[in-house]
Amino acid sequence: MLSCIPMKNLGSVLLAMLLMPAACIQVPELTAPPDVPDCSAVGEEPIGIQWVSPSEGAQVGSITRLQVQLTGATPEAVDLLVDGTAVATLKEPFVLDWETQSVSEGPHAFVVRARRCGQESLSPQRQVVVDRTKPSLIAQTPQDGAQWVSVRQTVRAELSEPVMADSVNDGTVRLLAGQSEVAAEVLLSQDGRVLTLQPLEPLPVSEVMRVVFDASVTDAAGNPVAMPSQGWSWRVPAFLPLGDTHTPRPRVDSFSFQVERGGTPLVAWLGTGTSGVQVERWNGGAWQSLGTPLQGSAGDPAAQECVLQLDAVDTPHVAWIQPKLDGSVEVQVRRWSGSIWTALGPPVTPLLSQASVTDVRMRVESGGVPVIAFKEWNTSDHQVSVFRLQAGVWRSNAPTGPRSAPSLGLLFLELNQGGDQILGWSQTDFFFPGWATAVSRQVGGSEFGYGFASRQAESPMMAMTVGGDGRIVVASPVQLNGSQSVLVQEQLMNTGGWERVAGPYDRVPGRTDASATALKFDAQGRLVMLLEEPESEASSFVQSLFVQRWNTDHWEPIGGALSANPGATPVSHSQFGTDKDGRIFLAWTEAEELDATQSRLHVYRPNQ
C-alpha cells in the first residue's frame, strides 16, 4: 500500500518555494537553439549574388568598399574570395570596408561566395586593381627651394600618375604667399598628370611661395597626392640676376655701373689679367662688349679704377686712372661714338708733382661736357682736383678740400641743373677726433663751403646726391646704442645749415653697423638709399644689401636682404641705378664662396 506522506511533503515543498522572495530565485538563461536552415528545398531556391561595388576594372586603395545584393534563400555564410582564397566574411546587409594590405598591388579576381546547406553560390568574377601607391611629384616648376623666381612664373607639377579631374580646382590646389592665398587658375592636363597654376596677378615679392594640395586630390584608387617631406616652396625676391655671374675673368678689381633711361644696364670693369677697361651693355639676353678694351699706350702698366657715366641722351663716357712706366699717373677719358671710343682731350695729369691718384669721379653736363674729379697727394700735400673739358682742353678749377687735413676719405661729385659742381668728401682733422663729412659748391673759379654735415664719426662712410631741384642730400655715420647707424641730412639752401631728413636709421635690429653706399633721386623725385649691413650680429662679417625708399615720412624697404649667395659671402662695392620709370637696378662684387680672394660682379634687375 502506498503512503500519502511523501505526496504531502512534496506539496509543502512546492508551496514553500512559491512563497520564497523573488530576489532569491536563480533562473539560468535559456539559449535559443541555432536556426537550422530548412534544407528540404535545397536546389529549388538558389541564392543570387549581384555586385554593387566595386565596378569591373575599378582601382582601389588601402581600403575598398565591397557591397553585394543577395536574392533567394538566406545563406549560412557569405565570404569574399580574392584570387580563389577566402579573405573576409560579409555580414548582412553584405557591405564590407576591406583593407587590402594582405594582397599585393595589381589586378586581382574578386568573387563573393554564399554557402547554404552544403551548397555554394558564386557571384560573377570582378577584376579589381589594387593601388596603394600615392601620386607623387616627379617634376616641378619652380624647383623646391629655388631662390630666384620671377613674379610672372607659371607653377607646374608633373605627377607620377593621373589624378581625378573632378578633384582638382582652385579650392583643392592652392598657391600661398606666406599664409595668404594667391588667386590662380588651376588647370589639369587631359591625361591627368600635369597640374598648372597660372597666377592671376604677379606674385608678391620678398615672399616664400608654396603649393598646398588638399587630401581630396586623389588618383582613381582614392590615394591623395604625396607631397615631399620638406614641402614645395620657393622665394620670389625683389631683384633677379641679369644673366649669369658676370665676368669671364677670375677677379674684378674695379667697376662702375649705370642704367639708361629705358632700363638697359651698362658696366665698365677692370679685372686681374684683363687688358684695359671692359665696357659692356646688356642686350636683353647677354652682355655685349662696346668696342675693344680701353687702355693706355703700348707697354703701360694695367689700368687702375674706372668710372662710367651717361649723358642726357645715354651716351657712355668712361674715365680711368692710367699708370705710366716712369711711375707717373694720368686720367684718360673716352666717349662712345656708337661704333668706337673717341678720346676727349689729352690725358689729364695731376696738379701736384709726383702725385698718386685715387677715387676718380665723373659727371656729364646737360650740354655733353664732362667734368672729372679725383683725389691726389704726394709726400707733402693732398687735395681734391676738378677738371672740366673746354674747347678740347681739360681746365682745372681751384683745388678744393682742406690741405691741412691728415687724410681724405670717400669722394663724391655731382652737378646741379645750373652746372655747378657739388663736391662731398670725408676727412679727418687736427682739432676733433674721428671723421667729418664736408660739402662744397664750385661755380667757375669760386668755391662755397656748406660746412660739415657731421663730425667725430667713427668711420669715413658717406653717400651724396643732388636732386633736380638742387637739393643736396648727404648720408653720414652716427653712433647709436653701440653700433653705427646712418643719418640722412638735407642742405638748407641760403642758410648754410643741415636738416635731418629722418632720424638715425639702420635696417637690422641689434648691434650691427650700417653703412649707406649710395643715394639717388629716381625719375619721380623719390630718394632711394642703398645700405650695407650684416643680416645678424652672429654673422657680422657677412654684409648684405638693403634698398630703402623715402616715403613722405619714413623709409620703406624695397625687397629684403640681398646677397648673391645668401648667408655665405659678403657683398662689397655696391652700386645702383634707376631708369625713367623709377625701376631700381643693382650691381656689386662678391667673393666666391670657395675662394674669398676671387671676386665676381653681379648685376640684378627688378623682379617685375
TrEMBL record:
Keywords: Signal. The keyword Signal applies. It comes from Corallococcus exercitus. This is Ig-like domain-containing protein. Residues 131-234 form the SbsA Ig-like domain. Residues 1-25 form the signal peptide. The keyword rRNA processing does not apply. InterPro entries: Cu-Rt/internalin_Ig-like, SbsA_Ig.
